[in-house]
Amino acid sequence: MPMKKFMNDPTNLTAEMLEGLALAYSDKVKIVNERIVVRTQPKAEDKVALICFGGTGHEPAMHGFVGEGMADAAVAGDVFAAPGGPKVFDAIDMFKRPAGVILLTLNHNGDRMAARKALRLAEKAGIENIKEIIVQEDIAPGIDADPEDRRGLGGCIPLMKVMGAACEAGKSIDEVLAIGEAFHAQLATLSVALKVATHPQNGAEIGALADDEMEIGMGQHGEGGGGVMKIQSADETAKIMVERLVAATKLQSGDRALLIINGSGATTAMEMLICYRAAAKILMGMGISLVNGLATELLTVQEMAGFQMTLAKVTPETEALLAAKANAPYWVCNG
Fold this sequence. Notes:
Blueprint: H1 13-24, E1 29-32, E2 36-39, E3 49-56, E4 73-79, H2 85-95, E5 101-106, H3 109-124, E6 130-135, H4 156-168, H5 173-185, E7 187-195, E8 197-198, E9 205-206, E10 213-216, E11 227-230, H6 234-249, E12 256-263, H7 269-285, E13 289-290, E14 294-296, E15 305-314, H8 316-323, E16 326-328, E17 331-333
Parallel strand pairs: 3-4, 3-5, 5-6, 12-13, 12-14
Antiparallel strand pairs: 1-2, 2-4, 7-10, 7-15, 8-9, 10-11, 12-15, 16-17
Helix pairs in contact: 2-3, 4-5, 4-8, 6-7
């Protein structure tokens, strides 16, 4: 089937998308140095800066979450490709400050390579007080899998919210990093796909699924997750996923948790809400209470049909940070 998308020259997708973002949300973000999205109103220099980066094609991630109470900058790569290390370094250099800079890196080969190059360049330039947090919350490889084998998925967005709020509150770089690492340690994501996506520049299908199949664990670039099965109902799908996520986060009766259903691009709001309902009922039946959650699109894969389910144990501190004021294009919270 031929690809059907609203676009112009495929080689200009990223530039035109970023220009559209800045025009639509000019009160929140602007584009500098071609591929770096920054806050229109920067925060004080005495507060820690939080920088993220990644390939485009996953909108609104990552650049849709730049703003007050979230990231200070997001560096955009090409479609499904991490930006080069020198461009990530440009953002670090732009936001260097005595309070420090934290680089949020998703665990994908290209992202890790870009981060390593950027950090080497920063060291060579004499920029000090830089920390990195690596997002690897995907449990598809197994709960006890080597963290290096666990991909970074949509859980990066609530992690960014927690760390961004801590930065905004004026916490030190070590405090922000400790808060982020503690939240990440109790954060898990699992995906499910019904239909694969197409690459918007060439129309190639990313992955493969039969019409009567779904796959639990498929990555955000079509990577196999080993969970191909016949399509299940919303309730049964939620049950399979919640059981694995609860085991990964070690949630117990009496705990409070954050639940997010993150649509992959072609999943309707109706489907997301039905799946949220199913998961929430299972969790509440286990004696786990839920903080305000989300059923929306945070990190997508073009027109992939499916969703990522993210579950995290929250403490009073992280609950307050999740609820703190934020004003990014795709995450607004009054605090």
